[in-house]
Design a protein that fits this description.
By secondary structure, the protein is α+β, with helices and mostly antiparallel strands. Among the domains are: 121 residues, no CATH class; 154 residues, Histidine kinase-like ATPase, C-terminal domain (Heat Shock Protein 90, 2-Layer Sandwich). Helix content is 47%, strand content 17%. The chain has ten helices and 15 strands. The strands form four sheets. The protein has a five-stranded antiparallel sheet, with helices on one face. A five-stranded mixed sheet has the order 10-12-13-15-14. β7 and β8 form a beta hairpin. The C terminus is likely disordered.
């Protein structure tokens, strides 16, 4: 385990990411906007407005922009008439042969400017007001012309659908800013998320292998604190399990001495009593031997390897069939897990032995489901009542009520199966079959290098 100098806190790194992203986005936007030409204004001449008034409907300017003329009861609210606005009113009134008072010009601000004689509307020359210049309107406006019946014919630019060229340029600027900032944001985000990802992988690895190495402490202060607490928890759990295992092993080992003394002492007991006592002592010694074997296997470190669980099930089923048992494995896909070959062999062997002990046949199959390898062993025995399923996993608990080891066993088989399955990050369940009998289902994580499969 290596300990690196702590990085800045997660809060500071996140704040730095936000600030750096904003600065980079703003700088990119300013740089691109400063390099682009300003959008040309929408220019409307007196001739454009005069054409709309005369046609009283939708018209187009020479450069393709739409004007609309419609009747209203009231005139638009006029702006204060300056010199240029008065000139525009006078020019339009003269063309319509109306008094200037019959013309109202409304704009959002002083938008009327001078236009030199006969320039192109797309490239007007704006400058100081000169006598002889024709006034124009820029952008949005409303021009009201009083009609003989007292209503007002209002001319205004028609709202256009779509995106103008200058808006397209602005969207392009935003897209460039996003593209420029994305690598920086990706790098920052990956740097911040990497320690949390490592912590999550460490937790998953601990579920698969309780003896997994401790995590490397690195990253922001908050993450290093979490990793340190995780490592301490892992060590305490490992020590707790080891102490419990050693204690059970010591007790089982110490029981052998009084059992041996009892075996010598019962030789003087009556023959009818002696047979029963010998049977009880034999059973206790078998339990002690099974316990010591379990403790020895649990405490001995083994390296996890990639194991094709399908072949292991088929091999164990074939070995049982060679002894005359009715056992077979269905043809299954090849499924690979990371596990201890000796422990997993014992797990499957215990399940097959139980199936043959309590039933007359054993059937096995392997498949994948939701990213887990699933091993199922079925029998045609009497099954287990729903309220007794959980108790079946208790050490030395035997559902068979007789005292015979030939039928009831020691009572450690399923306890060992559950311990091995959970030690590999999985679990085991017993499910009654509708056809009768019992189905033992073991779920184990798939090998990480193989990938997730669904079945």
């Amino acid at each position: 385990m290596r300990i690196r100098a702590p990085s800045p806190s997660l809060f500071l790194q996140t704040l730095g990411l936000v600030v750096a992203t904003l600065i980079a986005a703003e700088a990119t936007t300013i740089l691109v906007v400063m390099s682009l030409p300003p959008p040309p204004p929408d220019v409307y001449t007196v001739a454009d407005v005069l054409q709309a008034v005369r046609h009283q409907g939708r018209t187009q300017t020479p450069d393709g922009r739409d004007l609309i003329a419609h009747l209203e009861r009231r005139p638009p609210a006029p702006n204060t008439d300056g010199r240029r606005r008065l000139q525009f009113r006078a020019t339009l009134a003269s063309a319509l042969d109306l008094p200037p008072a019959s013309i109202v010009v409304a704009q959002p601000g002083p938008r009327i400017v001078a236009l030199a004689a006969s320039p192109s509307p797309q490239h007007p020359r704006f400058g100081p007001w000169m006598e002889g210049d024709d006034p124009i309107l820029l952008g949005g406006f409303q021009v009201g012309v009083k009609q003989p019946d007292g209503e007002w014919l209002v001319v205004a630019p028609m709202s256009a659908f779509g995106i103008d060229p200058w808006q397209q340029r602005l969207l392009l600027v935003m897209a460039i800013a996003v593209l420029a900032v994305s690598p920086l944001a990706w790098w920052f985000s990956r740097r911040i998320a990497a320690p949390m990802t490592a912590l999550a992988k460490g937790a998953e690895r601990l579920g698969r292998d309780p003896s997994a190495p401790r995590l490397e402490i690195r990253g922001p202060a908050e993450v290093t604190a979490a990793v340190s607490a995780f490592n301490e928890m892992q060590e305490r759990l490992r020590q707790y399990v080891e102490d419990r295992t050693n204690m059970v092993g010591a007790i089982a080992h110490d029981l052998r001495t009084p059992l041996t003394r009892m075996r010598f002492r019962i030789e003087s007991a009556p023959e009818d009593v002696q047979a029963k006592l010998v049977s009880d002592i034999d059973q206790m010694e078998a339990m002690v031997s099974a316990t010591l074997s379990f403790v020895r296997d649990a405490s001995r470190p083994r390296e996890r390897v990639k194991l094709e669980i399908t072949s292991l099930v088929e091999t164990i089923m074939d070995e049982a069939a060679e002894t005359g048992a009715d056992s077979a494995a269905e043809v299954s896909d090849r499924v690979v897990v990371d596990g201890d070959p000796v422990a997993l062999r014992r797990l499957i062997t215990n399940l097959v032995d139980n199936a043959l002990k309590f039933g007359s046949s054993a059937r096995g199959r392997v498949f994948t489901e939701n990213g887990m390898a699933v091993v199922e062993i079925e029998d045609n025995g009497p099954g287990i009542a729903e309220d007794q399923i959980e108790r079946a996993f208790e050490p030395f608990h035997r559902l068979e009520t007789s005292r015979s080891r030939d039928t009831g066993g020691i009572g450690l088989g399923l306890a060992v199966v559950r311990a091995i399955a959970r030690g590999h990050g999985g679990d085991v369940q017993l499910k009654p079959r509708k056809e009768g009998g019992l189905r033992a289902q073991v779920r184990l994580p798939l090998s990480l290098s193989v990938g997730r499969q669904t079945g």
